[in-house]
Amino acid sequence: SAKGFGFFEITVDLTEEGINYVDEIITLIFQYLNLLREAGPQKWIFDEYSKLSEMQFRFKDKENPIGLVSNVVHQMLIYPLPDVLSANYLLTEWKPHLIEDVLSRLHPENSRITIVGQKVADKCTETEKWYNTKYFAEKIEKSTIDEWKSCGTNEKLQLPTANPFIPSDFSLQTLETEEKIHPMIIHDTPLIR
Q: From 94, 139, 178, 185, which residue has the greatest number of CB atoms within 10 Å?
């Protein structure tokens, strides 16, 4: 959003039926945030994410040159020159206090809910001036915010388990050399060979 300022965004894709349960789904989100606050920052999750990010950086696909240059120039304003290419990928420091700080700010009264879909089109009575997009804005009722604030946790929600399939050894394996056998006919009929 701007230097030193940003938004924490949670995006949920809903089915046609799911859009009828927006408040319940938002309740589940706040229950999960409560679970995260209760459990506290988990070092093993940071370690997993760090390994995955390192792997993504190490085996990064070739980028469009214009996009790469634009990204690097932007990163040069934020990071020291030696870290410009890797800073968004390599996580080197475990800082649980920052996780707790972010979690302490994720509360219903600090949220903005955006619903996009055909089922809410009839409520959209205002038009945005640049793109002529229809929209509607309203305050969330205090009773709804109070429900979300007091939603507690849900026993059906839990933290994920550790992923045992994150690779750590990227050394090349040697292939055993075997004599190549020419293809053999294993089935031969007038219909198929």
A: 94
